[in-house]
Amino acid sequence: MTRFKKAILFLHRWLGFITGLVVLIVSITGCLFCFQDEIQDAFCSYRKVEIQNKPYVMPSVLKARALKQHPGATVNYLYYFGKDRPAEALVSHPKEGFRYVFMNPYTGVITHTENPAKNFFVIVEFIHLYLLLPPKIGRPLVGISVIIFVAIMITGIILWWPKRKSDRKRSFTIKWNGRWRRVNYDLHNVLGFYATGITIILAITGLSIAFDWVTGGIYKAANLGGNYSAEKVEAKSDSLQKIAAGQPVPDKALIAAQQKSPKAEMFLIYMNDAKSGTVEVTAYATALHFYKSDIYSFDKYSGKLLRTLPHAKKSPGMKLNNMNYDIHVGQILGLTGKIAAFLASLICASLPVTGLIIWLGKRKKTKKSKPRQVVHRRLEKQLAR
């Protein structure tokens, strides 16, 4: 082995020891989260409603009913997840914390109230993002470990890549009929090679969630350094105005967004409490997908439309950042993409384990070979006499 490859092996091995446990935890939780929507739909009946041929109940009604159930709380976010899905109010209570209040979007009847802190997949998500540590500690710990893991994958490819063409066919397959150590060796190398491309994509999209500088870097790279100032301008309400009488502004905002984005399946309404804050409606093309969306900002006092940013007019960088979550969980490619993300995450979870087994096996061989060397040296000295 050349000095270069010895140095690469040293880095590969010790970086693996440093990040192995974090990679194992993040990868397993990633596997679980890939199909969280499908699993919850199968076990939680409140996530589906019967489609009715009438308009949605207005946001002001949903907000009032959620607050009636939770007096003293605030509601800044309302979701309409789709025609066959419930509406949801995110309730923030000073003592109880956050609650999800699910309602029938056609009647406004509350169908379920959930504490997100006890939702299995929310817990899985927090382990995946922060290892259940405080975000200020867990976020950089996971992020740095992911960066190191990308380096491990690249060094692994360098170490594994066969020199001779005749060896390449053998190197791309697992020898299932070999001894268990050989099978373990192949699982580590061959599966690691096949998963590398998808893993790097998952790592970059994950880092974009963890670090703003990655999000900014993706934005600039996709825009080739171009500046799209219109995307960064924040609309502001005129706080000198009084709230206009008549239909509440959130209701006007939803109706306007539905008219301007008639094919949208999911709507998110954000009501900013700041004096100059706005009522913002994001219309998503597909339910539970966050890629294609149109953004509308309204003055919270008059209901005047202040800003429109349709998907078609977004820059390539903003579009790429919008699809970040859908890429990370694989749903950008539908079921095929989710399966690919699941398998890649599963392989990533196996790599620290199979790598540790390889290292232990080599260490055991080294220990066995040392006594033999000592015996040979003693015999050589005796014969020399």
Tell me the total number of β-strands: 8
Largest sheet: number of strands, sense, barrel closure:
8 strands, antiparallel
Strand content: 5-15%
Low-confidence stretches: none
Rounded radius of gyration (Å):
27 Å
- Report the helical percentage: 55-70%
Classify the secondary structure makeup into a structural class.
alpha+beta
| Mean model confidence by pLDDT | 90
N-end to C-end Cα span: 36 Å
- Principal-axis shape: elongated
Structurally, the number of domains stands at: 3
Biggest β-sheet: strands ordered side by side in the sheet:
4-3-2-1-5-6-7-8
Tell me about this structure:
The chain is of the alpha+beta class and 385 residues long. It folds into 3 domains: 1-49 and 115-208 and 325-385; 51-114, Nuclear Transport Factor 2, Chain: A, CATH 3.10.450; 229-315, no CATH class. Helix content is 55%, strand content 13%. An 8-stranded antiparallel beta sheet has the order 4-3-2-1-5-6-7-8, covered by helices on one side. A hairpin with a 6-residue loop joins strand 3 (97-103) and strand 4 (110-114). It is elongated. The mean pLDDT is 90.
Based on the model shown, name its key terms.
eight-stranded antiparallel sheet, alpha+beta, single chain, Nuclear Transport Factor 2, Chain: A, 385 residues
Give a short summary of the structure.
The protein is α+β, with helices and mostly antiparallel strands and 385 residues long. The chain has three domains: 1-49 and 115-208 and 325-385; 51-114, Nuclear Transport Factor 2, Chain: A, CATH 3.10.450; 229-315, no CATH class. The protein has twelve helices and eight strands.
